Amino acid sequence: MPRAQTADAPGSGRVAVAALRRVTKRYPGIVALDAVSLEFHPGEIHVLLGENGAGKSTLVSLLAGMQQPDDGDILIDGVPAAIDSPRRSMDLGIGAVFQRVLLVPSLSVIENLMLGGSWLKPLARTTALRRFEELSTLLGIRIDPHAPVSGLSLGEQQQVEITRALWRDEKLLLLDEPTSMLTPQGVADLGRMMRRLKEQGVALILITHKLLEAYEFGDRISVLRLGRFAGDIGPSRLKAMSEAERTDTVIGLMFGAAGGPSAATDAADAPADTAAAAAIAASDPGREQELALLLGEKLHRANTVDRARPPMLSVHALSTAPDFAETPLRAVSFDLWSGEVLGIAGVDGNGQKHLAEVLAGQRPSWRGRIELAGADITRGGVPERRQRGVRYVTDDRLGEGTVGTFSVATNLVLKEIGSAPCWRRGISDWELIHARAREQIQRNDIRTPSELTPVGKLSGGNVQKVLLARELDADANVAILNKPTYGLDLHNQRLALDRIVAAAGRGVALIVISTDLDELLEISDRIGVMFQGRLAGVVGNDDAALDQIRRLMAGAQA
Amino acid sequence: MTSRGITTSGSTTEGDTAAGFAAALLRVLIPVVLALVAGGLILLALGKDPIGYYGYVLQRSLLRWGGAQETLTRMAPLLLIAAGLIVAFRAGLWNLGGDGQFLLAAVASAALAPALSPWLPRGPNLIVCMLVGSLVGSLWSLIPALLKARYGVNEIITTLMMSFLGTSFANVMIKLVLRDPDTTVPQTRSLPVDDRLPRLFGTTIHCGLLLAILAVVLVHLMMTRTAFGLKLQVLGANRAAAIHAGLRVERLTIGAFALSAGLIGLGGAVEVLGVWGTVRADWNPALGLLVVPLVFLARFNGYAVMGFTLFFSALMVGGESAARRVGVPQHYVLVLVALLLLFLALVEYLDQTRRKS
């Protein structure tokens, strides 16, 4: 492996591990990458910043061999290489970790890691286990290699993915938004892993939305905007700058240095599908909020919860049956009032999923009691609870939240099939369903060609708008939202949070489960912390909250 | 055979939208033409006359009045089986046990009808026998349905196994219990022609055909216009979403199986009560599995299935005599169906790629 070193200017005599030379990639109606040139050096963490639709993911898929460029060359170790398949990409020493977990859930960790082997060779379990141990030590992680992947938390699954990406001593590691599903602790662990790899001389490409992460981990920051290379900050320049200067530079690059006019022209040129970027440039107030979020500013909301009244939702010592390799709930109790936002923090996989599902009626409770406005609803299933105004926005939007091949209109009524007014005596009134859908699409600004478009064809942000429109309707009393902003770009994160806050303003009692503490601190009245299936504590959202939450997340008692 | 594949692509299935009808028709007609051409080339390679073959098929099965009647009569059980398969397949349940369900229902109604005919007038007798037939079909699907609903056991395996058991059981019943003592060949007591399903307007076509067409239309309307149909479709397209939306997945699974097997059983009853009047031991037309590719060709669309059933039925009726005359094996018809499936998949694939780029 090459020794770790850092150099500032590209082409300083050193051969880059990988380099793009005027690479262009077009999709129907969109130029995803427009003559982009970049170099990735050994021992350097190269951060790629940019909005959704800026071309980051396309760049990753080119290097991973999932797509081929229409123009330009990709150089590996200085030699032009045709990366025409993922296998070829791996052979060239490129490892990739994608936003979505790509593991076989029913197989064990070690079986997943052995999948890439040759067809003819027998599986060498002992060798694989040794390699797993080696990489675990290198990365500083502890996962049981024989545990089925389905039983791991998202964060752990990601660690397995990173292990797999490094399985063959890859010298270039792609990380596509690896922090979006991690807790602060997980992010810190990831940072440590990345630094260790850097010392080994691995070149890392880190894609992120978050500026602070970019400063913290990055040696070099490159910014893409609407498929074009907008500029970069090299290592020595990055070190020399203050945080404010960095932010100014990056924001300038991301949204167009000249601000309004040039950005607006770009947006006019851009097709509707790069909606995020276009929308930012187009609407000024939206952009302000965007920037505020980007810079970590909080939009505190006034606390107007009336706790003198009886609570809307009361949960008493609620437990769930242990399910295969999932953390069950253990005696969770809390009260929730109308108009209140209760944030649920915690490392992923500490019972949050069970909490959401048992409250929604999707999972039976084992012990304990749930009361809604004084009525015992412990026994009811999803339909009964929905009728009483309980709503659940799942984090698995395409897996269970929607039927991808069905139209937006059908997905908007997915939980009301058979009930009035869209169904009378079991007969569907499609005209009414479609008319209501058109109205909801307009009211919630869902960007879709029509109400008949399959929901799977929409972007992630718009799928979430469909779910929020379905769940945060006028009859909602209690809503449980699991990772409502996960995987969304800043614009849509903002919209989702706004909608949650607006629902609280209408008097809905909300439970927001998230691993993003900043977000919880921004919108919650109180924040509860899940640890090993228990509600380790609930703290008021004040200045001391963050420290308390951190201690609770690590397992301290309240 | 998940939600992507042949099943739902190309059109939104959950509502009955007429949009893109012409395109859909074209996507079906092109493969049909290609299959006929390729089939013709195979005949040529065998040194046979393809024009002659297709000509005989057409003449025998559709152009001659007797042949046309035979073709239409042959459609009745095929349509009922297709209706049953559409219900199950749309719900994502691969009921491949049609043969067992069909045959058991046929035997049950064949045994019951002559036994009841002294006591009941013709109409009520036939209705009772058809109901019993579909009930027997439904019951035979209960074990796979329960195993699927409760434990998620793969229904492809269980229905196929139950099908083998069902056909054997039907034979055993004929040979040991229901056998007509007056015949040398083991078979059930024959239902007199006057007691069978009434013929339509002086033709040889029995009214089971109308029943079958009605069943297909009703199934299509149920799937596209009712809450129950939409629930089944949600279950078929995304089981996790069905659970998430609070659908009673166990009940839906059992209900879909019962309806599916009931319709297939009705097909068996209609075939016996309308055409044969008796079931011989070792008789197994194995229509259940033959209809599966037709239902896929029609993309689970009830109206399209009628066209394909007519096509297939004509091939079956005409193919036999045409094969004899031209001198190709009788099973050449199946080669055509296979080619049709192949080209349909190919056209589908090309269409998808074209739309993407």
Structure description:
The complex is a heterodimer of chains A (558) and B (357). Chain A has 558 residues and is an alpha/beta fold. Chain A has four domains: 18-93 and 170-274, Rossmann fold, CATH 3.40.50; 102-168, no CATH class; 298-389 and 475-558, P-loop containing nucleotide triphosphate hydrolases (Rossmann fold); 402-470, no CATH class. Chain A has 21 helices and 22 strands. In chain A, helix 11 packs across helix 12 and helix 18 runs parallel beside helix 19 (490-505). Mean pLDDT of chain A is 81; it is low at 1-13 and 257-285. Chain B has one domain: ABC transporter involved in vitamin B12 uptake, BtuC (Orthogonal Bundle). Chain B has helices at 4-8, 21-45, 50-63, 65-90, 98-116, 122-140, 142-151, 155-177, 208-225, 227-237, 239-244, 249-276, 287-297, 302-326, 332-356. Chain B is built from 15 helices and no strands. Chain B is 74% helix and 0% strand. With 357 residues, chain B is mostly helical. The two termini of chain B are 24 Å apart. Chains A and B meet through helix 14, helix 15, strand 18 and helix 17 of A and helix 10 and helix 11 of B.
